[in-house]
Automatic annotation (TrEMBL):
The gene is lspA. This is Lipoprotein signal peptidase. It catalyses: Release of signal peptides from bacterial membrane prolipoproteins. Hydrolyzes -Xaa-Yaa-Zaa-|-(S,diacylglyceryl)Cys-, in which Xaa is hydrophobic (preferably Leu), and Yaa (Ala or Ser) and Zaa (Gly or Ala) have small, neutral side chains. Its EC number is 3.4.23.36. Belongs to the peptidase A8 family. Its main location: membrane. It is a multi-pass membrane protein. Pathway: Protein modification; lipoprotein biosynthesis (signal peptide cleavage). InterPro entries: Peptidase_A8. HAMAP family: LspA. The lineage of its organism: Bacteria, Bacillati, Actinomycetota, Actinomycetes, Propionibacteriales. Keywords: Aspartyl protease, Cell membrane, Hydrolase, Membrane, Protease, Transmembrane, Transmembrane helix. This protein specifically catalyzes the removal of signal peptides from prolipoproteins. It is found in: Cell membrane. It comes from Nocardioides marinquilinus.
Length: 185
């Protein structure tokens, strides 16, 4: 449920912000939000990050479809809240830009992504891009913490962990499995 809620809210924020940006920024000069630090500047990007790959938009679209399917495949194994959030924002980001590539001009699989957030010395981006970067940070945090997608920790058997990756065993001898010779009786 957490995964779905995060994905839906972030995806909606991305799509609504793009609609507002295209309706209010088209043909206007840059709008300063926080002085020169953050400005609104409408662009339509046929490529990937930093406008790379502008000539291979259909390939980027297929990669985005595969990434979306990959996230949906892996979410079945989620066993921790942080992994659910990470995959939720990742899905929202990938699906947000994929929606543009499928539905915007110049046509399906060639659509240009709406970008409108501009920082100094940085390419113009959107909320979907922010989601993808937040997901990357959360995934790296989980990797450094040694928490697997199912919530278990590295070096810990899967059946001895709870959903947050913490040990669930106790020191009570009654909770330990019986030795093999006792089970045979």
């Amino acid at each position: 449920m957490l995964f779905a809620a995060v994905a839906l809210v972030a995806y909606a924020a991305d799509q609504v912000s793009k609609v507002v940006a295209t309706r209010t920024l088209d043909g206007r000069p840059d709008v300063q939000v926080v002085g020169e630090l953050l400005q609104l500047h409408l662009t339509f990007n046929p490529g990937a990050a930093f406008s790379t790959g502008t000539g291979i938009t259909p390939v980027i679209t297929v990669i985005a479809i595969l990434a979306t399917l990959g996230v949906l495949w892996y979410v079945r194994r989620v066993g921790s809240a942080l992994w659910a959030v990470a995959l939720g924002v990742l899905l929202a980001g990938v699906a947000g830009n994929l929606t543009d590539r499928l539905l915007r001009e110049p046509g399906p699989f060639r659509g240009h992504v709406v970008d409108f957030l501009m920082l100094p010395n940085w390419p113009v981006f959107n909320i979907a891009d922010v989601c993808i970067n937040v997901a990357a940070v959360l995934i790296i945090v989980q990797a450094f913490r040694g928490v697997r997608i199912d919530g278990t920790r590295e070096g810990q058997p899967d059946d001895e962990a709870d959903a947050d990756g913490e040990a669930a065993g106790t020191d009570d001898p009654a909770d330990r499995p019986a030795p093999a010779e006792e089970r045979a009786e």
